Amino acid sequence: METIRERLEEDLRTAVHRLRQLGGGVTVEEVPGAIGDNSPFADEVDEIQANERREIGFATRELLVGRVNRLSAALDRLNDGQYGTCVECEETISPARLRALPEVQTCVRCQDRIERLGRQFEQDEEELEAVGDDD
């Protein structure tokens, strides 16, 4: 159990460190503005590339925040004696899955069901929107 705790804590420290590295202030390139004499961009391509870098940075931060939250929740489950138990079906999560993703909360079967239901929910929403557009 202690090696699991050490792994979770190390992964958490690493994710927090990466998040702090990305969390610096906004640079001049990241400030959107009009192209022209007062713009930090030489042309539209420079502005597009700067926007792309900014969006990638936001997405990376969002993924890291999610991982930090999942790792913290895994440590809480470990402290409560619930680590390694699926939050959906309460069955044991396979050790191989926990080694690959120590912060995981669901077994493979439940994760598959959640993902299929999510896709089904998205399809249902799209169908409802299409029906609404036909009216």
At a glance:
The protein is mainly alpha-helical. It has helices at residues 2-22, 44-80, 95-100, 108-134.
Would you kindly provide a written description of the structure presented here, covering whatever features stand out?
The structure is a single chain. The protein has two domains: 1-83; 84-135. The longest helix is centred in the middle third of the chain and has 37 residues, at 44-80. The protein has four helices and no strands. It has 135 residues and is mostly helical.
How would you classify the helix and strand content by structural class?
Answer: mainly alpha
Q: What distance separates the N and C termini? A: 59 Å
List how many beta strands DSSP finds.
0
Q: Radius of gyration, Cα only, in angstroms?
A: 21 Å
Strand percentage:
under 5%
Largest sheet: none
Number of helical regions? 4
Poorly predicted parts:
25-31
Tertiary shape: flat
Q: How many distinct folded domains?
A: 2
* Mean pLDDT, all residues: 83
How much helix is in the residues?
55-70%
Write the H/E string, N to C: HHHH
List keywords for this structure.
135 residues; mainly alpha; 2 domains; 4 helices; 0% strand; flat
Write the layout of secondary structure elements.
Layout: H1 2-22, H2 44-80, H3 95-100, H4 108-134
Helix pairs in contact: 1-2
